[in-house]
Write a structure and sequence with these properties.
Elements (H helix, E strand, L loop, with lengths): L6 H22 L5 H9 L4 H25 L11 H17 L4 H10 L3 H25 L2
Helix pairs in contact: 2-3, 5-6
Amino acid sequence: METVFTPVQSLGGGALIGLSSVLLMWVFGRIMGATGILVGFFSPSSFSDWHWRATVLAGMITAPLVMLAVTGEFPTVDVPISTPMLLVGGVIVGIGVTYGAGCTSGHGVCGMARLSPRSIVATITFMATTALSVYVVRHVIGA
């Protein structure tokens, strides 16, 4: 399995995520944690709370259409694992989000920027677990 190095696209995407996080904090005083946004969408505290969450989720869903309009192609997404493994991974991530009180976007982007000790530890844990998982899958299991 080959990992494609895309520094320009990665830098652009990271800059857009950072800008979005800053704007959400500035305008609504809210943290850009994708999981928290999704959970709050299904159990909002008010209509205005639901509205901004729905807007963010709509942006996430329609982004591929914007890319199609700009480039003439949908983004390519290759998932080099089976559907059952994808589902197992999703459950594991869901458990981690619950016990970690947030996801990679909330801790890694917003929490790190605020120098939150909890977020720093969570992000180090995410990254170490990811590195270990990739090593095991690619070099031990050989998938």
